[in-house]
Write a structure and sequence with these properties.
Layout (H helix, E strand, L loop, with lengths): L9 H25 L5 H15 L3 E3 L4 E3 L4 H8 L1 H18 L8 H26 L3 H26 L8 H39 L1
Antiparallel strand pairs: 1-2
Helix pairs in contact: 1-4, 1-5, 2-3, 2-4, 3-4, 3-5, 3-7, 4-5, 5-6, 6-7
Length: 209
Protein backbone atom coordinates (compact mmCIF):
# COMPACT_ATOMS: atom_id res chain seq x y z
CA UNK A 1 0.00 0.00 0.00
CA UNK A 2 2.98 2.31 0.52
CA UNK A 3 3.85 4.47 -2.47
CA UNK A 4 7.49 5.33 -3.10
CA UNK A 5 9.13 8.40 -4.61
CA UNK A 6 9.68 6.59 -7.89
CA UNK A 7 5.95 6.28 -8.48
CA UNK A 8 4.89 9.82 -7.53
CA UNK A 9 5.99 12.97 -9.35
CA UNK A 10 6.09 16.48 -7.78
CA UNK A 11 2.93 17.52 -9.65
CA UNK A 12 1.02 14.91 -7.64
CA UNK A 13 3.18 14.63 -4.52
CA UNK A 14 3.35 18.31 -3.52
CA UNK A 15 -0.42 19.00 -3.62
CA UNK A 16 -1.03 15.77 -1.70
CA UNK A 17 1.48 16.89 0.94
CA UNK A 18 -0.50 20.12 1.29
CA UNK A 19 -3.77 18.17 1.64
CA UNK A 20 -2.21 15.86 4.23
CA UNK A 21 -0.83 18.85 6.16
CA UNK A 22 -4.22 20.57 6.19
CA UNK A 23 -5.86 17.35 7.41
CA UNK A 24 -3.26 17.03 10.18
CA UNK A 25 -3.87 20.61 11.35
CA UNK A 26 -7.61 20.01 11.37
CA UNK A 27 -7.21 16.73 13.28
CA UNK A 28 -4.90 18.36 15.83
CA UNK A 29 -7.40 21.13 16.55
CA UNK A 30 -10.20 18.59 16.99
CA UNK A 31 -8.15 16.08 18.96
CA UNK A 32 -6.86 18.50 21.59
CA UNK A 33 -10.42 19.28 22.65
CA UNK A 34 -11.18 15.73 23.76
CA UNK A 35 -7.73 14.21 24.26
CA UNK A 36 -6.76 14.07 27.92
CA UNK A 37 -3.41 13.15 29.45
CA UNK A 38 -4.71 9.77 30.59
CA UNK A 39 -5.12 8.77 26.94
CA UNK A 40 -1.48 9.34 26.04
CA UNK A 41 -0.38 5.84 27.04
CA UNK A 42 -3.29 4.28 25.14
CA UNK A 43 -2.47 6.33 22.04
CA UNK A 44 1.22 5.38 22.19
CA UNK A 45 0.40 1.70 22.68
CA UNK A 46 -2.09 1.72 19.80
CA UNK A 47 0.39 3.50 17.51
CA UNK A 48 3.11 1.01 18.44
CA UNK A 49 0.81 -1.91 17.69
CA UNK A 50 -0.15 -0.54 14.28
CA UNK A 51 3.49 0.27 13.48
CA UNK A 52 4.42 -3.34 14.21
CA UNK A 53 1.51 -4.72 12.20
CA UNK A 54 2.41 -2.59 9.19
CA UNK A 55 5.91 -4.04 9.20
CA UNK A 56 4.45 -7.50 8.53
CA UNK A 57 4.11 -8.00 4.78
CA UNK A 58 2.43 -11.09 3.38
CA UNK A 59 2.02 -12.39 -0.15
CA UNK A 60 -1.30 -12.79 -1.94
CA UNK A 61 -1.51 -16.27 -3.58
CA UNK A 62 -1.37 -16.44 -7.39
CA UNK A 63 -0.74 -12.70 -7.77
CA UNK A 64 2.95 -12.30 -6.97
CA UNK A 65 1.99 -9.26 -4.86
CA UNK A 66 2.14 -8.49 -1.17
CA UNK A 67 0.48 -6.08 1.21
CA UNK A 68 0.12 -5.15 4.84
CA UNK A 69 -2.47 -4.04 7.35
CA UNK A 70 -3.22 -0.30 7.44
CA UNK A 71 -4.55 0.05 10.99
CA UNK A 72 -6.54 3.27 10.55
CA UNK A 73 -9.81 1.69 11.67
CA UNK A 74 -8.10 0.12 14.67
CA UNK A 75 -6.56 3.43 15.75
CA UNK A 76 -9.84 5.29 15.30
CA UNK A 77 -11.80 2.68 17.27
CA UNK A 78 -9.33 2.70 20.16
CA UNK A 79 -8.43 6.39 20.53
CA UNK A 80 -10.83 8.30 18.27
CA UNK A 81 -10.53 9.25 14.61
CA UNK A 82 -8.69 12.54 15.12
CA UNK A 83 -6.04 11.18 17.48
CA UNK A 84 -5.97 8.04 15.35
CA UNK A 85 -5.23 10.05 12.24
CA UNK A 86 -2.40 11.92 13.98
CA UNK A 87 -0.98 8.60 15.17
CA UNK A 88 -1.12 7.32 11.59
CA UNK A 89 0.72 10.43 10.39
CA UNK A 90 3.45 9.80 12.98
CA UNK A 91 3.79 6.16 11.94
CA UNK A 92 4.10 7.00 8.25
CA UNK A 93 6.61 9.80 8.87
CA UNK A 94 8.83 7.52 10.96
CA UNK A 95 8.62 4.78 8.34
CA UNK A 96 9.50 7.20 5.53
CA UNK A 97 12.38 8.90 7.33
CA UNK A 98 14.01 6.02 9.20
CA UNK A 99 12.94 2.86 7.35
CA UNK A 100 12.70 4.08 3.72
CA UNK A 101 9.17 2.62 3.62
CA UNK A 102 7.47 5.15 1.35
CA UNK A 103 9.32 8.29 0.30
CA UNK A 104 9.02 11.88 1.49
CA UNK A 105 7.62 13.02 -1.85
CA UNK A 106 4.98 10.28 -1.61
CA UNK A 107 4.28 10.97 2.08
CA UNK A 108 1.22 13.09 1.39
CA UNK A 109 -0.25 10.38 -0.81
CA UNK A 110 0.43 7.70 1.81
CA UNK A 111 -1.12 9.79 4.58
CA UNK A 112 -4.19 10.40 2.44
CA UNK A 113 -4.53 6.78 1.32
CA UNK A 114 -3.99 5.19 4.73
CA UNK A 115 -5.01 7.97 7.11
CA UNK A 116 -7.64 10.25 5.62
CA UNK A 117 -9.60 7.51 3.85
CA UNK A 118 -9.50 5.21 6.90
CA UNK A 119 -10.10 7.67 9.74
CA UNK A 120 -12.33 10.22 8.06
CA UNK A 121 -14.26 8.13 5.52
CA UNK A 122 -14.41 4.40 6.31
CA UNK A 123 -14.50 4.79 10.11
CA UNK A 124 -17.43 7.24 10.42
CA UNK A 125 -19.41 5.86 7.47
CA UNK A 126 -18.90 2.11 7.91
CA UNK A 127 -17.63 1.30 11.39
CA UNK A 128 -19.50 3.68 13.66
CA UNK A 129 -23.06 2.95 12.43
CA UNK A 130 -22.59 -0.77 13.04
CA UNK A 131 -20.73 -0.25 16.32
CA UNK A 132 -23.67 1.83 17.59
CA UNK A 133 -25.90 -1.16 16.82
CA UNK A 134 -23.65 -3.36 18.97
CA UNK A 135 -22.05 -4.95 15.91
CA UNK A 136 -18.40 -3.88 16.26
CA UNK A 137 -17.07 -7.06 14.65
CA UNK A 138 -19.10 -6.57 11.48
CA UNK A 139 -18.22 -2.88 11.53
CA UNK A 140 -14.50 -3.57 11.89
CA UNK A 141 -14.46 -6.05 9.00
CA UNK A 142 -16.60 -3.92 6.67
CA UNK A 143 -14.69 -0.71 7.44
CA UNK A 144 -11.28 -2.38 7.08
CA UNK A 145 -12.17 -3.83 3.70
CA UNK A 146 -13.68 -0.50 2.63
CA UNK A 147 -10.62 1.47 3.73
CA UNK A 148 -8.25 -0.81 1.83
CA UNK A 149 -10.41 -0.72 -1.29
CA UNK A 150 -10.58 3.08 -1.23
CA UNK A 151 -6.84 3.28 -0.61
CA UNK A 152 -6.04 0.92 -3.46
CA UNK A 153 -8.16 3.00 -5.85
CA UNK A 154 -6.35 6.14 -4.71
CA UNK A 155 -2.97 4.46 -5.33
CA UNK A 156 -3.91 3.75 -8.94
CA UNK A 157 -5.24 7.26 -9.54
CA UNK A 158 -2.16 8.88 -8.00
CA UNK A 159 0.10 6.65 -10.07
CA UNK A 160 -1.83 7.58 -13.22
CA UNK A 161 -1.65 11.30 -12.44
CA UNK A 162 2.11 10.93 -11.94
CA UNK A 163 2.54 9.13 -15.25
CA UNK A 164 3.64 5.86 -13.63
CA UNK A 165 0.50 4.08 -14.82
CA UNK A 166 -0.82 4.53 -18.34
CA UNK A 167 -4.30 6.06 -18.38
CA UNK A 168 -5.43 3.24 -20.67
CA UNK A 169 -4.46 0.73 -17.96
CA UNK A 170 -6.18 2.44 -15.01
CA UNK A 171 -9.26 0.23 -15.17
CA UNK A 172 -7.24 -3.00 -15.29
CA UNK A 173 -4.91 -1.89 -12.49
CA UNK A 174 -7.88 -0.84 -10.35
CA UNK A 175 -9.50 -4.25 -10.71
CA UNK A 176 -6.24 -6.01 -9.87
CA UNK A 177 -5.67 -3.84 -6.80
CA UNK A 178 -9.22 -4.49 -5.58
CA UNK A 179 -8.76 -8.25 -5.83
CA UNK A 180 -5.40 -8.11 -4.07
CA UNK A 181 -6.65 -6.02 -1.16
CA UNK A 182 -9.91 -7.83 -0.41
CA UNK A 183 -8.18 -10.67 1.51
CA UNK A 184 -5.86 -8.18 3.20
CA UNK A 185 -8.90 -6.19 4.31
CA UNK A 186 -10.57 -9.30 5.69
CA UNK A 187 -7.46 -10.17 7.69
CA UNK A 188 -7.21 -6.61 8.97
CA UNK A 189 -10.91 -6.59 9.88
CA UNK A 190 -10.56 -9.77 11.93
CA UNK A 191 -7.47 -8.44 13.72
CA UNK A 192 -9.15 -5.08 14.35
CA UNK A 193 -12.31 -6.72 15.69
CA UNK A 194 -10.31 -8.99 17.99
CA UNK A 195 -8.29 -6.09 19.44
CA UNK A 196 -11.34 -3.84 19.86
CA UNK A 197 -13.37 -6.57 21.58
CA UNK A 198 -10.41 -7.42 23.83
CA UNK A 199 -9.92 -3.74 24.72
CA UNK A 200 -13.60 -3.33 25.60
CA UNK A 201 -13.52 -6.50 27.67
CA UNK A 202 -10.43 -5.32 29.55
CA UNK A 203 -12.02 -1.91 30.11
CA UNK A 204 -15.24 -3.43 31.48
CA UNK A 205 -13.23 -5.64 33.86
CA UNK A 206 -11.26 -2.64 35.08
CA UNK A 207 -14.44 -0.68 35.73
CA UNK A 208 -15.97 -3.61 37.63
CA UNK A 209 -13.11 -3.47 40.10
Amino acid sequence: MHLGNGIICPVTGIPMLAIAGAAAIYAYKKAKNDFSKDKIFSAAAAAGLVFALQMINFSIPQTGSSGHIIGGILLSALIGRYAGFLAMCSILIVQAVFFADGGLLALGCNIFNMGVLSCFVAYPLLYKPLAKRSKPVAGAILASVGALQLGSIAVVLEGALSGSIAMSSVWNFTGLMQMIHIPIGLVEGIVTAAVVVAAKFASSKKLSY
